[in-house]
């Protein structure tokens, strides 16, 4: 059972454009929703995270939008840069993040110069 | 701090052999997680510890897998006997008690032939 569904699997965006990745979850007990970025040969690294008491969180060029009633959340990367090319994973957790992460399958993002 | 340290970075072993993966979490972090990453199944939580005590091992695929955390600075994941389908990248992550950002190691790429 896939508890966190992520789309698209791959995405190509022109430099300066907006990259949008979507996730949907099933378990209403989830209360922490992070996005991780992974470069080849490296471990995932936290990019930005949100809790369900807010609908949006912005950090620099990265924004999470959260829709609790629809059980969906998304990552927007504004002014996408070639250095943003990586694999992005959405995740969800119970216990405020302390209970381990359930990951989506990942989105391979390529930013074309 | 050097971050989460995993060893070895790469391991190639023959089917039926015992494999031990090692992890040193960030000093002061009180939770440790083992994840497995494959193309087919993505990132999966195998087991996690809090204050050296195993909390949830429901993600451990079979009895062939075992994990220990004898002290706050060291954990092992053992596979005995190993099988080709165990081939994957295994990540260790640690979490401080004061926030929810999990820090991942570089991973161990295991190949069972």
Taking the alpha carbons of the first and last residues of chain B, their distance comes to 36 Å
Contiguous helical run count of chain B? 0
DSSP strand content of chain A? over 45%
> Sheet with the most strands of chain B?
7 strands, mixed
What is the count of DSSP helices of chain A, taking H or I runs of 4+ residues? 0
**Topology of chain A as a string of helices (H) and strands (E):** EEEEEEEEEEE
The largest inter-chain interface, given as chain pair and residues per side, is: A-B, 22 and 23 residues
What best-fitting shape of chain A do the alpha-carbon axes yield?
globular
The residue ranges of chain A in which pLDDT falls below 50 over 5 or more consecutive positions are none
Rg over CA atoms of chain B: 13 Å
Q: Based on helices, strands and strand pairing, what is the structural class of chain B?
A: mainly beta
Q: How many β-strand stretches of chain B?
A: 11
Low-confidence segments of chain B, ≥5 residues, pLDDT <50?
A: none
Percent helix range of chain B:
under 10%
Give the oligomer, counting copies of the same chain as homo and different chains as hetero. Answer: heterodimer
Walkthrough of the structure:
In chain A, the strands form 2 sheets. In chain A, strands 2, 4, 5, 9, 10 and 11 form a 6-stranded mixed sheet that branches. In chain A, strands 1-3-8-7-6 form a 5-stranded antiparallel sheet, with no helix packed on it. Chain A is an all-beta fold. Helix content of chain A is 0%, strand content 52%. Chain B is mainly β and 113 residues long. Chain B contains no helices and 11 strands. Chain B has strands at 5-7, 10-13, 19-24, 31-38, 42-50, 53-56, 65-71, 74-79, 88-95, 103-104, 108-112. In chain B, strands 2, 4, 5, 6, 9, 10 and 11 form a 7-stranded mixed sheet that branches. In chain B, strands 1-3-8-7 form a 4-stranded antiparallel sheet, with no helix packed on it. In chain B, a hairpin with a 2-residue loop joins strand 5 and strand 6 (53-56). Chain B is globular, with a radius of gyration of 13 Å. The termini of chain B are far apart. The model of chain B has no long low-confidence stretch (mean pLDDT 95). Chain A binds chain B through residues 32, 34, 41-46, 49, 89, 93, 96-106, and chain B through 4, 31, 33, 35, 42-45, 48, 50, 55-56, 91, 93, 95, 100-107.
């Amino acid at each position: 059972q896939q508890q966190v569904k992520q789309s698209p699997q791959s995405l190509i965006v022109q430099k300066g454009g907006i990259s949008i990745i979507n996730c949907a979850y099933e378990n209403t007990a989830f209360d922490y929703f992070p996005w991780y970025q992974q470069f080849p040969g490296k471990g995932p690294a936290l990019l930005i995270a949100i809790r369900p008491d807010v609908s949006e969180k912005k950090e620099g060029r990265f924004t999470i939008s959260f829709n609790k009633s629809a059980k969906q959340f998304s990552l927007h990367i504004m002014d996408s840069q070639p250095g943003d090319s990586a694999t992005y994973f959405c995740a969800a957790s119970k216990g405020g993040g302390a209970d381990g992460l359930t990951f989506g399958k990942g989105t391979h993002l390529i930013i074309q110069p | 701090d050097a971050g989460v340290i995993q060893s070895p970075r790469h391991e190639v072993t023959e089917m039926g052999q015992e494999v031990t993966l090692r992890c040193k979490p960030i000093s002061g972090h009180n939770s440790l997680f083992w994840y497995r990453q494959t193309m087919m199944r993505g990132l999966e939580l195998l087991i996690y510890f809090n204050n050296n005590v195993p909390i949830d091992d429901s993600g451990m695929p079979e009895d062939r897998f075992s994990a220990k955390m004898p002290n706050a600075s060291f954990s092992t994941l053992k596979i005995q006997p190993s099988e080709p389908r165990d081939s994957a990248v295994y990540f260790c992550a640690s979490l401080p008690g004061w926030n929810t950002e999990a820090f991942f190691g570089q991973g161990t790429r295991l190949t069972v032939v």
